[in-house]
């Protein structure tokens, strides 16, 4: 079923003001997100919301050390939405609390072609979060404008900034968790980075307390995959202008330090993504936004394909679907978002950030 194009929510001011505006604009969606993760924590980890809040407290201390300013924004979100600050902290630490048992099925890639740096991915997750997706344009007082596509009440997920820095996310299922920034807080710090060096430092200096893959690229044509975790991240350099990733670790520096537990479809999806991008690199191939959305709409190997649909053969708690696809032209600071499955619509929300 075709989804409506999302509306861009524009936020500005101090950290607290940005958070308050986010909370007011999306209070019903934030409340629904809390309900979704209450169920998810029960399904995957066997804990209730009160216990999840207690679990999140230790990550709050890590944020206080590594990115204290974002706590003020989280407090503003809670105030605007009429919920408790501990609820918003827990929501923003949902990966650390739940992803020891579950991982999404996201497929991401970076592609440099014809002087343009592209960055794209599908975000696959539980269907009950489909209508809690939000697109935020944040013009804060102490960083360049940025756009983030993610879940209501969370400080960031996938996006880019006006400096031409972009980031994508692949979930990794692992029992590793240590010291560092929670995944979604680290993503926001990357989105506030003025350059590639600053973005990479979030992984290597601040560190990330649980494993994930961050695909980071810049308008200058740089791209690197970062398999983050509490230690030094594994790095995947671009080969022929391409970096691809799904939901398993494969950088030697990461696999020597971290054990992951990917689903069986992760490696076949990666192989398919590599094959499609080899076709895109053929001399006669046109590479544009529409062509890259076609990659994200691919159904080879369905139902466990790049574009994922409902699969009744999976256990109910494991059913993941594509909730949005995004294609970013970092060179032009342009982000295009298709809400829902990218195969079902050609309509997109387009956001452009001034250079």
From TrEMBL:
Sample GO molecular function, one term: acyltransferase activity
Ligase found in the keyword field: no
Gene3D superfamilies linked to this entry: 1.10.10.2120, Penicillin V Acylase, Chain A
InterPro entries with a match to the protein in the record: C45_proenzyme-like (IPR047794), Peptidase_C45 (IPR047801), Peptidase_C45_hydrolase (IPR005079)
Keywords: Acyltransferase, Transferase
Keyword Transferase: yes
Pfam assignment, any one: AAT
Domain called Peptidase C45 hydrolase: residue spans: 114-342
Official protein name in the record: Isopenicillin-N N-acyltransferase-like protein
